[in-house]
Structures
1.
Amino acid sequence: MNLVAQFRLPGLEDRLRLVEGALRDAVTTEDPFLTEVAGHLVAAGGKRLRPVLVLASAAVCGVDATPDVLQGAVSVELVHLGSLYHDDVMDEAESRRGVPSVNFRYGNLVAILAGDFLLARASELAAGLGTEVAALLARTIGQLCQGEVAQLEAAFNPDRSEEAYERAIAGKTASLLATSSRIGALAAGGSPPAVEALTAFGHAFGMAFQIWDDIRDLVSTDDVLGKPAGHDMVEGTYTLPVIRALVAPGVGDDLRSLLGGPLDGPARDKARDLILGTDAVSLSVSAARRWADRADDALRPLARHADADAVAQLDGLGHRLLDDLDLA
């Protein structure tokens, strides 16, 4: 699916072209090799969800893609890309976005240093937007690390609780989406009520987004995902549908006997079939919709403080994602 199209913001593609140019500029250095490595995933493309949230939040505050807004958009995307470089090293990934991962192509050391460079560039750009934005981005990088550590601590643990799952995704996903929305509002000079409302929106949408993405890992085809369905389980990441299925009568014990360690292809497929045979997916969709409702509710105070048309484009965004799931 085209995630960006779900935002329905007029002129968004033109603004994203400006972001792409600014991203390329941000990773260009005097060292051709560092430029090549740091720009590897920039050139591979991506959803650019975080820059879109910056642009959308600025639009809600009545501001277009000004230099400050673009700088904010690039800073959050560089944080995201830097975290992907590090993730791929930890996961020993061989590909990312349809191209060889940086660690696979250049080695772990280069990937780690390139990821560090991207985080440094993001911090430099954030500092150019003022101390509040700089501190916000630094704090968010810490939250990303905390979320990833929480996920690592729960690896291959079939007793992972829903609360632990939500804490992890709040750190590793929702924190940066909330920050993206907040930076967009701050860069646009939004009023304090608008800044707080958009931050709350970004967090709640981020939670819905991650649950949606975790559901897709189980219900989508290999071709759609670009990797085998159920890959999260193979890596020992037991997401909300798995957690729900583990307590399903008549299925939980069979599923638990498969989990707790690495899975080969047949075991992964059997575990996936067990999960899909329960109501775990529909229950997870309901949980995601509750977060989507919170995202919509966060927008309500903006009716008197923001661009009504831009607010309307964000309203229902989480539900549109969930409606697009193929649960047949």
2.
Amino acid sequence: MKSLSKILMVIVVLLSVTKSFAQNQNEQHHKGQMPAVTSQNLTQLQAIFDKYFSIKDALVSADTKKASSNATALAAAIKALDMGKLSAEEHTVWMKVRKELSLNTESIVKSKELVKQRTALNSLSKNIYELAKVSNLEATIYYQQCSMYNNGKGGTWLSKSPAIKNPYYGSKMLSCGRTIEKLN
């Protein structure tokens, strides 16, 4: 009987401590001492990925004006990213690829030539892939490759769909390629 009362007392103490901790966390949150956990915090890079996909889709359709316009939106998203909301791993990769992301994006913005935009997409895709590997993704992303692109050197891109829609050849060879990795 004594051991049962000791167990009950331990349970009561643990419940009290848990309740007190939860109340303290809630008070700190409401005082602005702790950031709220939101989907924005969890997927800080999602805006970057979404803008990238819009560029890639425009190049699948060979729409240089839309690719340029979407690249302008990506450039703005890159500048607006709050590095303080990135995880340590995301931050490390972001610092490594940020400058090249900006250069590739700017190249797509300035160029009106489909070939040059597609060349810039190849470099952009490699950096976006590096970010996607360390990010908390909202959905599965497919890392895809066309080994024929760039005189047989190959080209990669990311897609929201497992179906191949080649941004380097568009309608000429829309389904040329394969999925090489699935990121969740």
3.
Amino acid sequence: EDLIGLLCINFDSGTYINMAETLLKFAPIPLSINYQQKNTNTTSEILHTNIEDVIYSIINPSLLKSDISLSQEKKIQICSKLNDRGIFQIKGAISKVAKLLKVSEPSVYRYLKIINEKKQ
């Protein structure tokens, strides 16, 4: 087969990405699509298939998978970071975070209560 022609379509998605980011500021939902290289013409996206992937995109997996016990303060910091990204609005996130932090679900709820009290 011989090449007959080429079609090139140029499209600047920057306006739509900025609009989406502005709208998402009003709803603290974790982004399953992370846009990188915003100031270039190339946009890369990373899709997460489960809650653990989303958590690992926010928290370094080696920190959670290590055999070193994390202090309560460090666990609260991790929960705070996850809370800021809206992870706990996802069904089943509490149990996943509890499992990853090697604590009980009530402990995660306690950490969230401490985080909310500090914000007030």
4.
Amino acid sequence: MGRENQTVVTEFILAGFSHFADLQVMLFLVFSLIYLVTLMGNVIIITTIRLNRSLHIPMYFFLSILSFSEICYSLAIIPNMLANLLREKKTISFIGCATQMFLFLGFACTNCMLLIVMGYDRYVSICKPLHYQILMNQRLCTKMVACSATTGFLFSTTETIIIFTLPFCGPNKIKHFLCDLAPLLELACGRNYIGEIVLFIIAFLVVICSFLFILLSYILIANTVLKIPTMAGKQKAFSTCASHLIVVVVHFGCAAITYLAPKSSYTLNETIFISISYTMVTPLLNPLVYSLRNKDVQKALRKSLGKRSCTQRI
């Protein structure tokens, strides 16, 4: 394949919702509402944690970073998807497609790394409570966040380079509403077998290995909690993990279905539905779960709202 063929395709057509031509406006309204709620929810989480000193502990520091990462993750995908629902020419430039993939995968991988860190934080808090302040100091927490982002975007950079150094010289219609790995591999004129193996290894590391690390944390946590003599003590310990566990199960469940299932397992409509769950529901779940299930966050929210109402009266 000649080098010149790699630059023939200058833009891609995102045809993810082409089968729902009569529902474009309705989908735009529904997705816009979900997006606004997601943005507002995550911003409220970040603001609440920042303004309440009682939440200035590692658990909520990591939560605020996760919320920020979810906002950036959504920004990489949803605005362009909403715009495409309203315009006839649903195109994205070659560079724009590469940029979207880099950001989307970067923040997705970072979120997985952050969930590992949050699992480790719960392990130290419950299994080593006397050493928690020393082990989970601010310097270490900052390093763990930086390492999560660096690892996430290192994986993303590798994946983006592998995909966009492939030759694209024929069809340019992506069967998706975003620039993702599998639909772009289908469009490539050539194959990079070593690159595809690397892509699978990265997906395996990010999804399966990350989940196993978190699972190990919770096995150790369960072992410690079961030794607590009182039922009230057990419930209190487990309650600090419930929100994180729910987010982990949904996040890694959707990721495994999206990136580790065989390509032929799903129809186009099923793939789109799964991707919507992964790109829209997961970022929405983070603020929703932590707001509804976490008593500390609820208390801080009520406190912040109380202060605001008092200020308005004055």
